Amino acid sequence: QVQLVESGGRLVQPGGSLRLSCAASEGTFSSYRMGWFRQAPGKEREFVAAISWSGVRTYYASSVKGRFTISRDNAKNTVYLQLNSLKPEDRAVYYCAAGAQAWNTQTMGVMAAYDYWGQGTQVTVSA
Q1: Rounded to 5 degrees, what are φ and ψ at 112?
Q2: Which of 37, 38, 44, 122 is 20 to 30 Å apart from 7, CA to CA?
């Protein structure tokens, strides 16, 4: 069982930046590929970004590519999401997730491909 705890969400102005963190309890964290999803009010949860177990491969939703960066530090059992050039439409609860399946860009954006989820952290973008 992997427990994931997100942090770093807060109110930020449009155009601002933010870094989210997700700390994992599991010592075998480095064997999981990790993903970030988000859910805006009244909308379904959507894929944001994913990273392979080694950190070499990453994959982004088109809506955030070039603005967000996913990274990980396996020594700290932590995955990060750097959010730049934030827009009001980026407002959402952001969730991290861990998946044991092999890396596959066909499934990286699918919620069912992840085995463990955090409770989420709120990001609000407003002037």
Answers
A1: -65, -15
A2: 44
Strands 58-60 and 46-51: antiparallel
More confident residue, 107 or 33: 33
Strand partners, 47: 37
Asked if residue 2 has pLDDT above 80, the reply is yes
Residue identified by tokens 């919620």 is 111
Residues whose CB is less than 8 angstroms from the CB of residue 26 and which lie 6 or more positions away in sequence, other chains included? 1, 2, 3, 32, 77, 98
* DSSP character at residue 18: E
Phi and psi torsions of 74, nearest 5°: -65, -25
**Residue closest to 55 by CA, chosen among 85, 83, 75:** 75
Structure-token pair, residue 17: 């930046």
